Amino acid sequence: MTDPVVTDPPPPEARGPRRHKLHPGIRLGGLAVAMVTAFVIVAVSGSLSADRVRDWIDGFGAAGPIVFIVVSTVLSCAFFPGPLLAGASGLLFGTALGTPVAIVAATLSAMAACSLSRWVAGDAVQKIGGRRVKAMAGFVERRGFLSVLYIRLLPGVPYTLFNYAAGLTRVSLVAFTLATAIGGAPRTFAYVALGGSFGDFGRPETIVAVALLVAMAIGGIVVVRFTRFGPGRGSSSPDGRSAGLP
Predict the structure, then answer these.
(1) Would 5 be classed as within a structural domain?
(2) How far apart are alpha carbons 235 and 237 in whole angstroms?
(3) pLDDT > 70 in the chain, percent
(4) Residue 180, domain extent
């Protein structure tokens, strides 16, 4: 009786199709690209205009602000510019109602991004953001609530990226949310007021909004320079570098 012929297992390539697990960065990036692409297609097609959006929102009646908050939250998580969303809130609902609507939307989007990073896609955020995200996370880790409040008051910060970076830290979601709502309220009001007065920029709220943005920009520059180059915090020293913004 002949011994059975023992053959080596086939190589992985010959075992049939394998189910590859997508890189988390690809999943997160693909979601963002799909959402932004859909918006761009609608905008370029000409089917998106202020009147059409107003009609669409009006069709929801009293639930219109809630619908806007949901849509704005999703778009913001996909890196859609926050100032445009806040301006749209003012254009649709006016300054009085648009301001709290935009603040709620911005706060919820920050919470969502932080939560996604913390519990779902932290590995993707680290790989996509790289050293910049790590620096932001370190800044938040050292100062907690005050660091989030500080960042919200500064101009020119990539806020959505900061939201994802905050999810990599041990800062509580409650502290992060509270600091976001407080620190982001002044700038959100300014953008809402500009959107609400679109076409009539001589209105008092427009003047206040512009003055507020200018004052916050100047104040932010002064604070950043003091933080990085102030007494005992020279940029050439390790302490100075760690005290500065990411």
Answers:
(1) no
(2) 6
(3) 63
(4) 25-243
Is the residue at 18 inside a domain? no
- Which has more confidence, 116 or 3? 116
Tell me which residue has tokens 């929102």: 57
Distance CA 71, CA 93 (A): 15
| pLDDT: which is higher, 243 or 95 | 95
Higher pLDDT, 82 or 21: 82
In a domain, 95, yes or no: yes
What's the token pair of residue 86? 């806040």
The whole-angstrom separation of Cα 94 and Cα 88 is 9
Q: Indicate the number of domains in the chain.
A: 1
Tell me if 92 is assigned to some domain.
yes
CA 179 distance to own-chain centroid: 14
Residue 198 has pLDDT above 90, yes or no: no
CA distance 52 to 70: 18
Task: Grade residue 110 by pLDDT with cuts at 50, 70 and 90.
Answer: very high
